[in-house]
């Protein structure tokens, strides 16, 4: 592997580890409050870097509408749905559901941008969907008792939220694509998108609905988890993937960065002492293979 490919695997590892350690804090605070706290910390990180680098000057007048809309759909709606899924289905199922981001992105590109969807890409989409179904439906043995394998609030509701998360993330990326293609600084764009999410999450928490409020008092441990997951998911993960894309082949880098569901399984095994079921490994492998077909890695 080159350094670029290793960086892509490093990004996937950051995202896998971030997902594993997020559930405790997300359940303690509630998905909305956890996401707001995490995003506020990330905003400080990205805003500080943008202020030092001067990257905000790269955002032109016509960029603002798609960037703001991308932040609302991709991060506010997408990340909120993602952590609601995490609270219901646990990290393994959430991660495999989120791998649908790749086929959804390809489908939206075909639908909205008239991009050609080849036979190989179509097969890749079907392979990813098959992997997700196998991992969700058959990925747990009865002997697995760890809380990460618990389903809270119904499997169907959790799967629906996971699908919404993948759709929103893919849509947000699609909306931001012309801005990034024009040469806008990615850290500055991310900072604006995160700021939009923090604003709307704060407004949501101010609404007179108990379910949107912070569920329990903030503790030092929970705040530390929020900070660590924000750093791993946004700062370290994003930096590694941007470095990988700066010199690596896009298809290979994107596919390697989609290996989070597979990388998560040995981490779960190490943490819980319970070996994931065979279909969980198969489903994760199919998600990676399908992503490779979508992004043109094979053949």
Note down, in words, how this protein is organized:
The longest helix has 35 residues, at 64-98. Helices cover 78% and strands 0% of the residues. It contains eleven helices and no strands. The mean pLDDT is 87. It is mostly helical. It is globular and about 55 Å long. It has one domain (3-294).
Question: Could you name the key traits of this structure?
Answer:
11 helices; 299 residues; globular
Please write out the topology.
Blueprint: H1 3-29, H2 31-53, H3 64-98, H4 101-113, H5 119-138, H6 155-181, H7 186-206, H8 220-247, H9 250-257, H10 260-272, H11 278-294
Helix pairs in contact: 1-2, 1-3, 1-8, 1-9, 1-10, 2-3, 2-7, 2-8, 3-6, 3-7, 3-10, 4-5, 4-6, 5-11, 9-11
Summed up:
The chain is mainly α. It has helices at residues 3-29, 31-53, 64-98, 101-113, 119-138, 155-181, 186-206, 220-247, 250-257, 260-272, 278-294.
Task: Count up the domains.
Answer: 1
**N-C termini distance:** 18 Å
Please count the helical segments: 11
Q: What's the average pLDDT?
A: 87
Radius of gyration: 18 Å
Helix share, percent: over 70%
The biggest sheet amounts to: none
Q: Please state the overall shape, judged from the principal axes of the Cα atoms.
A: globular
